[in-house]
């Protein structure tokens, strides 16, 4: 019997025929590795957009008050406020916030609303309350400015 046309031309697949697939897989692997390394080596704050960084700055100021941690509070406050004559001293900051913690508990921020970033300046409404009085919510208009690439809470 004669073979059907074309059946004799079939050869078993060879790994050499798959080299374009291996090259493509290698390129994809290098791209994925680059993205992973970038995310591991850069802090979350650097990967976040301006709105998220503004929220981090606001949160850091309130976290410093909960500490109380004057160095953190000062580091997250704009230079204009820190250099102002009426800026709170470390002793007063610690005394006020320790007393508040005992009397009221920690400050909690359930939400930040109306966040608007305009260049190096942002505004937001910070909704906060003490954990001992969760129904007594305060809403504070907050200004945040970018100084040397970092967002800082500022009084004006």
From TrEMBL:
<keyword id="KW-1133">Transmembrane helix</keyword>
<protein>
    <recommendedName>
        <fullName>Lumazine-binding protein</fullName>
    </recommendedName>
</protein>
<feature type="transmembrane region" description="Helical">
    <location>
        <begin position="18"/>
        <end position="37"/>
    </location>
</feature>
<keyword id="KW-0812">Transmembrane</keyword>
<keyword id="KW-0472">Membrane</keyword>
<dbReference type="InterPro" id="IPR032710">
    <property type="entry name" value="NTF2-like_dom_sf"/>
</dbReference>
